[in-house]
Amino acid sequence: MTSPLQGKIAAITGGASGIGLECVRQIAASGATVYILDRDHQALDKAREELGERVHTIEVDLFRYETVDRAIETIVSEQGRIDILHVNAGAYIGGNVWEGDPDKWDKMLNLNINAAFRSARAVMPAMMKQKSGDIIMTSSIAGIVPIPAEPIYTASKHAVQAFAHTIRRQLAPFGIRVGAIQPGPVVTPLLNDWDPERLKANIEAGAMMQPSDVAEAVVFMLSRRKGTVIRDLVLLPHSFDV
């Protein structure tokens, strides 16, 4: 049976590691051509060698917004279209606000909000012209339920939710679907910034997921028939208490 993603052209920001890399793997396995947009050139080279000819890489710096614009232009020039953009790159900061470093907040907020919004914007003209496309945004359960352990991160993901819901309405007349996936805790490099005691408690409780769990859900979202959209998909470990 032919996959609904067969022949599609996709791009994934932050696709060289973690959730992004697993999404690259599964979307490519579903028959799509996938471009990884990331700044880690060594990880890009490794991913391209491992995943084969369906996977292409473009080195971008999401804090230099013009590099994302150029990457999308390159994809459209090479392939004639772009069908999927997964806005996935993000960072994490937790902890009490009064103990936090606002300068570090700024970097995370710029990545989670500004860079995410501008990445989505970069693909809109091409998708609007072709009257089709999917934009998936990696949000978080923190975008749905405020998490006291991570107020700044929670705020950034609430912003992602608001953006996704409003552009979905703006882009629907052009045949473009917009959805957000809201995972709970996933075993990725972002866990390096978790409070050690909180991380230990979650691991012992079995309240963690793997990147493959999220990637399977993203493929499910993308493979729905035309005319339907999964606006939000909350994905949680069974024992996660929220």
From TrEMBL:
Pfam families from the entry?
adh_short
> Single GO molecular-function term?
oxidoreductase activity
Which keywords accompany this UniProt record?
Answer: Oxidoreductase
Gene3D superfamilies named among the record's database cross-references: NAD(P)-binding Rossmann-like Domain (3.40.50.720)
What PROSITE patterns does the record point to?
ADH_SHORT
Q: Which family does it belong to?
A: Belongs to the short-chain dehydrogenases/reductases (SDR) family.
Protein's recorded name: Glucose dehydrogenase
Q: Which organism is it from?
A: Kozakia baliensis
